[in-house]
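Quarterly update from the structural biology core.
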Amino acid sequence: MQVLSALQWRYAVRRFSEERLPASDVETLIEATRLSASAYGLQPYRLFQVDSRAVRERLLPHAMGQYKVLHCSHLLVFAIETRTGDETVDRYMSLLEGARPVTADDKAGMARHMKGVLAGMTTVERASWAREQAFIALGTLLTAAASLQIDSCPMTGFEAEGFDQVLGLAEQGLTATALCALGYRHPEDDHAILEKVRLPANDFAQVI
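Predicted structure, tokenized:
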């Protein structure tokens, strides 16, 4: 499916069918998300695939009435690091060393720059920055899903503390920041036939 056709086709599904997604397709979507753009490549977030029905039932009270958490084929939870900083950079530099030829001086300079940028942010600013990176990855996931004609519904209206407690995220230095329900649209979901409402192209983008 061409990218524009895929994006025209996708919408935020209100009701999913009972059909399960093939495991191979879910793996593809997770890999696409892993390969998403991220500032400096630091990826200050993790992705959790919640398959357990029992766990989803425990999450539901914290989902603000969004039953898609329980009834979608697959539920993905984006969780950002709560202590993004030197350890985040050190992890990246370790991965970089194993992937590319890089001199010790270049590595030290890159690390110093990245750590300096993060150190110049407040705790709130670092959390906001990490959340922005997770949302970039979420956008990649939505586009990849549409290209495979897999339906999705991104969600940010939920109680993060509840999700953190159920999934044990705080102990891992993480906090939930976005959800994405995946599956196939229910044939009776009438939102599927509604026209997409977006700004007109001439109002949305300008050439300067």
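The domain at 3-81+136-204 is CATH 3.40.109.10 (NADH Oxidase).
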